[in-house]
Structures are given as structure tokens and as C-alpha cells.
Design brief:
Length: 754
């Protein structure tokens, strides 16, 4: 925590948006004035008083593209003017009357730290970071335009209107309704997070629902995620995260600083961050990472329980919640999935696979692992601390893996710098580079246990890097933004640059090329189905090759950590010159089902020895087991003010009982998370959950359903539809909306029937 308690000079910075100091309604210039009568005298001296301040919330929110936030206060963006109307008790004269507006944030407002902003709307003009102008005067009503500085602090400001007289300042009473939230502004070129294309802003700032890609690079799958950055309470929860970590207010206008802090604040590894990471498979003290439908339930729980970390999360949960945090504050952000992602190594670009003397995978000695997939985030921004060519998308990762400057965090790291091998720039570029470029080194042990390198695969790690495509749930392949094509001249130059920048690449060659290629192929199957493996051997030499093949099959977590070995098989094959032979090996469901672990996949490692050449080669293949289907349907016409029925159904296709099943239904802008529990679902049994929804807002909507239990993870589905307007429906008031939201709070109903 000490790393975050920064100081300027000898004075500690204010570190809370929530805490505030009490300001007197009257502040005399002459401290010797008697309290009695002073305020009245000041009012008479100024001959002016403020009757009301209209923040023009509806109009300003529409102009600032913040009208989606379910928050009754004014929310604006940096460097864009908003207007307010001040009503005085008499006609206003801007040449004679002296009136200022105050905007304060935190408990220790200070003009020198931009936590206390004063702007003039009367005769006394002064240069300040925020700009103001009198737009219109209609007698007692004065319309004022105010423009926050393009680099000002992001957070909730208190506002006061002050009438200044010779005796002192007469301030309007404290009124939370006149508080103003200021956000980053990707629509303005002066802001650090400016994004040029409107299509990109719609996707990476305003889209409140998306998909996160999981599975395997050979069969990309996805799960829906409710970001919900506009839902009631989420903006305050995001500011609470910064407060709980005591991030100084003076740093909250710098996107680089906010992003770096956020990567640490979202995990609870070394502080009271939002989420507790857990890969153990034991989640009885919290919620399984696979059970969440999105970020809103997590963030509201964190805020409601006083900044207490929420259990539990894995990489896509960290990425999903961080994405909500970033988009909520106005930072363009997206979730990235890197397939075959090297993790927890020393950054030396080495991942070691150990085979025993018989050519079978040595589970005990193989310590390194390659995750099937790993999720992180990218944020679009200018990095004034880097050369301009390294601006744009920056990697930020909240999954606690390695420490950076004493805290578990990663980034922001320039994607372009990673691609070019320029790893000396901040922050954590070496770690990100290693995730995408580690070499897989196969070692074979002899009878004494001594190992030697038999094969190096330089192209396995970082096979595919994807993100959600704009206006689509399909993935966009962005691998080329991180790395040059494997084996290309530019890729070799990049690796050399990385080595000059401090990453130890290592030279494993010369390993004599055998002239024989071996590839393992398999179809994606559903959990509980049989599968067939094809080992394709291509002989590119002019001699016949006789090979002995050894296959080892392990159950493996999505993190690449192996569990039990369930299959071992030996085969012999002869491949004629310039020919290709394919070995087919059958794998029965009964062989692997008893050994499955959560989110399990099957890892097959194949070792081949060529007798004529006395050379070896190796290959591996991960087979993703797809979960069964979850059905979600709607009945009725989606229309504002009209009841809509939602039905979620699931059939247990297995010969074992599913116990302690959780079913969640969620929809941003439609309902808060609904939770239904089932004690058990018997083999062949089914469940059906129905829920009534009355949409309040028109537009494109998404409903997300997730079923989860210890025996079955990642069972998800979603349905998208358009909610139509209804002209005859009365306008929805804030009171009605608040009442509806209150009724839709999470309800946990336990169903004791199977």
C-alpha cells in the first residue's frame, strides 16, 4: 500500500473522492467580524442572492453522450462545454455583479493541485484551467457555459455558486444534486484518450455488453459478458475502487496512471482490490469464476460490502470487470484473448516439456505450462512518456501473475512496442512479449535422468490473439498487431531486438532437421463424447522412415497445468519417401471422464523416433471439450412498458447427478442479476426457469444466462433483440425507474426439488 501513498513535498495528497470538507456558507474577508449579522450584511452589500441552480442534467447528458448512465446527477466529459442556469433574486449585471463558481473534489481542496477550481461568471475575470462564459441573460436567469480542462481530474466534483461582496463570499448551501461527475473524453482530440472513429467509440466506450473468447485456437468459442458500465451504482463503485486503494486525486487526470493503478486494484493479491483470484477448484466460500454473468453483480457487491474483495475470479473475470471500470470512466477499452499463452515463466522465452526415457510425458518434472487461453485488456490512448509511434492500444492485465514495482499488476504496455521487440519502455513489456513468443522446448530423459533437447517448437505459443469485432459477436484476429509472421525475416529481427533489450532468447540449434514433420489433429467434441486423433506424418526425405510413436493423454486445466494421465499408447509406422501417412487413435469417453477437472481439456503429447536417422521429434495438441447447450427464449413482443417472458431450459445429458447448480439470468438495461439454485439435476433430468421482464428503455438489448456447478462449467448462452418504443406509454419517471431497479435486486431462491 505504501507504493500508492505518494506525496508532494512534505504534504500527503488527498486520496479520496468520497470524503469532503465542510465549507461555510459565508466566508468573511475580515476575520474580526462578529458572527451575528455578518451573513445578512454580506447579502445586503452584494444586493444579490442565488435562488436556484439548474444543472440541466437531461440536456447536458445528451450532449456529452452520458445519458445512458443510470445516475440522477450531471455527468460530463473533459474539454466539452456544459451549461447551467442560475436564477438570482434580481436581474443580473455581469459588468457589476461579482459571482464565481466553485468545483471541489476531495477533503483537501487545493488550487495548486487542481482539486479546487474557481471560475468567474461576473465582472472579475481570471485565467483558470476550466473555462467559462455567460451565454445568455434573461433578467434573473443566467445561462453559463463551463468547460472542464482536457486533463482535469476524473471524478465527482461538488459545486457551489458564490456571490462575492466587499465583506466576503456568500456560498450556496451544500447540495448533492449539483454535484458533477467529470469523465475522460474519447470524442475530443485534446484528451489523452481521444479515439478518431465513431464506430470504435460506440464499441469500445458505449457498448455495455459483449463476448469474451475462450476455448482453443483451433476451435474458438465465447461466453457473453454484461459490462453494465451505465447501471445504477456502477460509476460510484468505480470511484470507490480508486478511493479504497488511496490513489491520490492529483493523479486521476492522467490516463496512464489510472490504468496502471487499475491493473493492481482489480485483484486483491496485495491490497483490498475487487476480486480474489482462485484456480483451485474449491469455491464453497464464494462464487465460482465460471458462474458470473458480468461485472455489475461483482462491483455492486464490492461497494455494498465496504470495499471488501469479492470471491472468486479467473483471467476472463478480471478482464471483464476491468473493462467495465475503464469504459465507465470514459476510457476506450476491449478484452483480448491470447491462445496458447505462456505464463509464470521468467521472461526468458522458454517453456520446457520433459519426456521420460520411454518418450512419455513426465508429469512430475514438467513444471512449465501454457494456458489454453489468457484474457487481458487493451486501452486506446496517447502515451506522452513514449515515442508517438508507440501510442494507440496498450496492454493492461489485472490477473495477478507477477509483481511490477512491488504490486501484482501489468501495464500499460504498448502493443506496437511489443511487436517491434522494443522492451525497454514502461511498463512490463518483457512479460507481455514472453506470453506471446516463448519457445516450447522438448527434453528427453535417459535412464540416469539426464535430459537433452530433442525438439524446439518456436511457433506454438501465441498461436492466435483475438478480440470482439465492432458491431459483431465474431472475433477479429489481431495477432499481427502483436507479432510478425512466424519464421519471417521481420520476426527474426524482432527477436534479436528483444534480446538486445534484455530478454534472453537462447540458441538451441543447430538441431539437425529431420526432414520429417509430425502434426496431431482432432475434432472438437462435446464433453462425454468419444473422439479420434489423427497423427499426420509427412516424410520430405528421399529415404524410407520407420518411426516408433508414443502418445500420452492427460487431463489439463485451461491454465495448462496437467492433472492425471489417462491414456498411453504405442504405434509403429513406416513412411515412404515424399509420402504422408496418418495414424488414427480412438479415445473413448470412459477413458477421460472419470479424471476430468473443472474447465478441463485433454492434452495429447506425441513423441516420435526415426530409426534410420536416430532422431526424435515431438508435438502436442489440446482438445477442448465443449459443454452441453443452455436454451434461452423470449415470448412476446419486446416493447417499452410491455411484459416480456423469458424462459431458460437445460437438460442434463450425462449419467451422473449435477449437484448444487446455480442458474443466473442477467441483462443490462433490462434486469438486475437473477439467481436460481437447484440442489440437484438427475441424469436425463431438466430444469426450466421463467422470469417476467418489463423493458423501460428502447433499443438493442441482450439477455445472458449462465449455468454452473462443480461438475460442469462454462455453460452459457445469450439472446439479442430490439426493444421497440411505445408512443402510448407514459414517460418513465426517475421515481418509477428507481422503484423498478429496487424490485429487481438480486434474489436468491433455493429450489429443493431436483
Amino acid at each position: 500500500m505504501l507504493a500508492r501513498n505518494r506525496t508532494v513535498g512534505r504534504f500527503t495528497n488527498a486520496k479520496s473522492n468520497t470524503f469532503e470538507s465542510d465549507l461555510p456558507e459565508f466566508e468573511p474577508y475580515n476575520k474580526g467580524l462578529e458572527p451575528r449579522g455578518t451573513q445578512d450584511e454580506a447579502t445586503k452589500a452584494a444586493n444579490l442572492s442565488v435562488l436556484s441552480v439548474d444543472m440541466r442534467v437531461t440536456e447536458n447528458k445528451a450532449e456529452h453522450i452520458t445519458d445512458k448512465y443510470k445516475n440522477t446527477n450531471l455527468i460530463v466529459r473533459r474539454n466539452k462545454e456544459f451549461t447551467i442556469i442560475i436564477k438570482f433574486d434580481r436581474d443580473f449585471n455581469k459588468e457589476q455583479d461579482n459571482v464565481v463558481m466553485e468545483f471541489l473534489i476531495g477533503s483537501k481542496p487545493d488550487e495548486n493541485k487542481d482539486t479546487y477550481i474557481t471560475i468567474s461568471i461576473g465582472k472579475e475575470k481570471r485565467d483558470v484551467s476550466w473555462k467559462s462564459r455567460v451565454i445568455n441573460i434573461q433578467g434573473k436567469d443566467v445561462t453559463v457555459g463551463i468547460t472542464p480542462d482536457p486533463s482535469c481530474i476524473v471524478g465527482r466534483f461538488r459545486s457551489f455558486t458564490v456571490v462575492v461582496s466587499d465583506l466576503g463570499k456568500q456560498r450556496t448551501p451544500r447540495n448533492p444534486d449539483t454535484d458533477v461527475y467529470v469523465l475522460f473524453n474519447p470524442w475530443d482530440s485534446a484528451d489523452q484518450v481521444y479515439m478518431q472513429k465513431e464506430e470504435d467509440r460506440q464499441e469500445y466506450v458505449l457498448n455495455d455488453v459483449g463476448v469474451i473468447f475462450i476455448g482453443d485456437f483451433s476451435e474458438v468459442s465465447s461466453r457473453p459478458w454484461n459490462y453494465g458500465q451505465f447501471e445504477q451504482g456502477i460509476l460510484d463503485a468505480c470511484l470507490l475502487i480508486l478511493d479504497a486503494a488511496k490513489v491520490p486525486l492529483v493523479y486521476r487526470g492522467n490516463a496512464t496512471e489510472v490504468i496502471r493503478q487499475a491493473s493492481a486494484l482489480l485483484n486483491a493479491q496485495d491490497d483490498n482490490g475487487v476480486l480474489i483470484g482462485n484456480w483451485s477448484g474449491e469455491y464453497s466460500e464464494g462464487t465460482s469464476p465460471t458462474a458470473w454473468t458480468g461485472s455489475t453483480e461483482i462491483l455492486l457487491k464490492y461497494a455494498k460490502e465496504g470495499a471488501t474483495p469479492v470471491a472468486f475470479a479467473q483471467c476472463w473475470v478480471f478482464a471483464g470487470v476491468l473493462n467495465t471500470f475503464l469504459r465507465c470512466l470514459g476510457l476506450p477499452a476491449r478484452v483480448i484473448t491470447n491462445y496458447a499463452s505462456a505464463h509464470d515463466n521468467t521472461g526468458n522465452l522458454k517453456t520446457d516439456i520433459i519426456l521420460d526415457e520411454d518418450g512419455k510425458m513426465d508429469k512430475e518434472r514438467t513444471r512449465d505450462s501454457i494456458w489454453n487461453y489468457h484474457c487481458w485488456n487493451e486501452v486506446y490512448m496517447k502515451r506522452t512518456d513514449l515515442p508517438e509511434k508507440f501510442w494507440g492500444w496498450q496492454v493492461v492485465d489485472a490477473t495477478p501473475q507477477e509483481t511490477s514495482d512491488g504490486l501484482y499488476r501489468c501495464g500499460p504496455t504498448s502493443v506496437s512496442a511489443v511487436k517491434e521487440g522494443e522492451l525497454s519502455y514502461p511498463f512490463d513489456a518483457r512479460f507481455v512479449f514472453a506470453e506471446l513468443n516463448s519457445d516450447v522446448i522438448y527434453h528427453k530423459a535417459d535412464k540416469t535422468g539426464k535430459t537433452k533437447i530433442i525438439y524446439v517448437d518456436t511457433a506454438y505459443v501465441g498461436k492466435l490473439t483475438v478480440t470482439k469485432r465492432c458491431n459483431s459477436n465474431e472475433y477479429e484476429d489481431i495477432t499481427s498487431t502483436y507479432k510478425y509472421p512466424e519464421g519471417s525475416l521481420k520476426e527474426r529481427e524482432t527477436m534479436q531486438m528483444a534480446e538486445r533489450r534484455g530478454v534472453s532468447i537462447g540458441n538451441y540449434f543447430p538441431l539437425t532437421e529431420a526432414g520429417v514433420d509430425m502434426e496431431v489433429q482432432a475434432d472438437v467434441v462435446k464433453m462425454g463424447e468419444d473422439l479420434k486423433l489423427n497423427i499426420k506424418i509427412k516424410n520430405q526425405t528421399t529415404e524410407k522412415c520407420t518411426m516408433s510413436i508414443i502418445l500420452t493423454g492427460c487431463v489439463v486445466f485451461y491454465t495448462g497445468v496437467t492433472s492425471s494421465v489417462f491414456k498411453s499408447e504405442n504405434k509403429d509406422v513406416t513412411v515412404e519417401p515424399s509420402q504422408t501417412e496418418t495414424l488414427q487413435i480412438s479415445v473413448q469417453a470412459v477413458e477421460y471422464m472419470r479424471d476430468l477437472v473443472e474447465q478441463s481439456n485433454l492434452l495429447f503429447v506425441v513423441y516420435g523416433h526415426i530409426e534410420e536417422l536416430n532422431q526424435s521429434l515431438s508435438s502436442m495438441k489440446v482438445v477442448t471439450l465443449l459443454p452441453p447447450a443452455l436454451s434461452i427464449q423470449i415470448t412476446g413482443t419486446p416493447q417499452v412498458g410491455k411484459e416480456l417472458m423469458v424462459s431458460v431450459e437445460f437438460l442434463n445429458p450425462y449419467n451422473f447427478i449435477l449437484k448444487d447448480v446455480q442458474l443466473r439470468l442477467d441483462g443490462p438495461g433490462l434486469i438486475r442479476t437473477k439467481l436460481k439454485k437447484y440442489r440437484q439435476i438427475f441424469p436425463g433430468g431438466s430444469i426450466k426457469f421463467k422470469e417476467s421482464i418489463i423493458p423501460l428503455i428502447s433499443g438493442k438489448k441482450t439477455l445472458i444466462a449462465v449455468l454452473d456447478c462443480a461438475e460442469l462449467r462454462q455453460v452459457t448462452n445469450e439472446i439479442k433483440f430490439e426493444v421497440l418504443k411505445k408512443a402510448t406509454v407514459k414517460p418513465v419517471t426517475e421515481e418509477v425507474e428507481k422503484e423498478t431497479i429496487e424490485k429487481e435486486r438480486v434474489v436468491e431462491n433455493v429450489n429443493n426439488n431436483p
